[in-house]
Structure prediction request, 464 residues.
Amino acid sequence: GTQYLLELYQGSADGYYYGTSSQVGQHLTYYDMRYCNSCTQNTFPTNTLSNYQYGYPDLWYFTKRNVTPAPTYAMGTALTVNAGSGNVICQGSTVMIGGTATGGTPGYTYSWAPASSLNSSSISQPNASPTTTTTYTEYVTDLCGTSTSSTVTVTVNNLPNVTAGANPGTSICTGSSVTLNGGGAVSYNWSNSVTDNVAFTPSATTTYTVTGTDANGCSNTNTITVTVNPLPAVGGNASPSSTLCEGSMLTLSGTGASTYSWSGGVTDNVPFTALNSGTYTVTGTDANGCSNTGTVSITVNQLPVVAYVESQSNVCINWAPITLTPGSPANGTYSGTAVSGNTFDPATAGSGTFDVIYSFTDLNGCTNADTSQITVDLCTGIQLSSSQTGFEVFPNPFNNQLTIGVTSGSGEATLYNATGQEVMHLRLNEGKNTIDTKELSAGAYFVRVKTVKGTFDLQVIKSK
Prediction:
């Protein structure tokens, strides 16, 4: 029974439409329509159009039925939600945020913003995985359409820039130690039971992982590969042989590496004279800087002790070949001018002084030698006067005595038999020096006399 005014106000330039109303139902009675083209919202229209409405205004109305007794209702608590706080994570980690709404009318719906780093934007407690520090808003609406919201900030700490180092380096030799050390964080944990900054000896090439943790508790990893190079198989060669004679030249050369260093002052591939038996050690280093050692044992056989003194050191050119004095040890060999086997031929040699070499080779193949000299004289007798020579010899031929007269100063005389063997030697005084020759057998002899005038040779004959 109450009359209401529905007013539609439009601007002066707006158009108008008229027609029969179809919006009024059985619960409302349409009274009239008034209009005024020049009215404002503060002016009540006076002109009437029956059964018409102005501008097709929509009229939406509700009806109700009263019940007895009338229903009652109770007001609930306010709608609230707490999205949480204190969320600090490391980059790459995930944390659960949000909370369940309370109060209002149960039957809640949830939404989150931003939603890109959440596993779901329509649940009360999603998992957040932001890459940078992010503030999230949790929106909640209850069954009656009441809404509220709450915010939470997730702080994202960057991961530490963890480094991995090795001392002395990432390439070592078998048996060497290495120290691994982490950087960029506060504490470090290594794989393969390695302790940071503590030396250890790896047995093979291995990749190690270090996990570094900073003051925020954030961790990151890095890897390093330590290459374990094998030691070279170092050996040595002896040239021409590892068994040699005293005084022989020897060359040692290393094998299995790139460069070599020898004990005992030996230079690789440079000949030297080995004096004693012994073992030489070679240290070889390869292209990786890895070193190993090898040995070479050398046997140095001493030279045999050889002695040779020729007893017939003065001979005449017209003598038959003489038999050379035996050397020591026996069964050696002779060599030299006019030497054949164990004889020396004065005629082949001619006058002069000649070296005769006696050589001996022992069972080790080592050879040594000794040298003696033989002087070959023409033995033609003295053709000069005593004033020229400073002596005279008489008689010649001689029998039981031979006299050598020295005219000036002193001298010495040596008497040799026909085979060149020395049979007598004596000092000569100025004047006559008589020699007892009874024990000498008959034959030709050779006399060498030395005086202040010089050295002279002559042949003398014992008649009987």
Summary: Residues 346-349 form the longest helix (4 residues). The two ends are 204 Å apart (CA to CA). The mean pLDDT is 88. Helices lie at 346-349, 386-389.
